[in-house]
Structures are given as C-alpha cells and as structure tokens.
Amino acid sequence: MADDPAHQDQPTVFYEPDQDGNMAIYGTGGSGKSAALRGIAIAAAVTRAAGRSMSTASTAAPRG
C-alpha cells in the first residue's frame, strides 16, 4: 500500500524484486516500519514462486 496524502488515497502497489530492484522503507518512530519489514520477510519465506530470498534491515536511531 502506498500513501498519497495530497489526494487522500492509499492505492495498492506491487513490488517485484527482479524488476524493481531495491526497496527502502522509512518513517518516524511508531509508523510501522518494523511491521512492514516483518510482513515482507514472512511473505518472501512462504511464497512458493519465490526462489531464494534475503531480507536485510538496519536502523539509524538518533542518540541523546
């Protein structure tokens, strides 16, 4: 799902790694980044059509 606040819309989008390449997920604390990454990793693991898959996540939390 994408977010388009200017048009008050959240259209469904599709991600195809072989065609689309890398993906970045970003947002403020509590915005659902971890849940989104977890869902993508689970979907990649259980999809029969998928070959080998790899999920990597990192965070850059401010200090102080």
Give me the strand/helix succession: HH
Helix content: 25-40%
How much strand content do the residues show? under 5%
Helix segment tally: 2
Structural class: mainly alpha
Task: Describe, in plain words, how this protein is organized in 3D.
The protein has 64 residues and is mostly helical. It has a domain at 22-50. It has helices spanning 17-20, 33-46. The longest helix is centred in the middle third of the chain and has 14 residues, at 33-46. It is globular.
Give a short summary of the structure.
This protein is mostly helical and 64 residues long. It has a domain at 22-50. The chain is 28% helix and 0% strand.
Q: Which tags fit this structure?
A:
single chain, mainly alpha, 0% strand, globular
Please write out the topology.
Layout: H1 17-20, H2 33-46
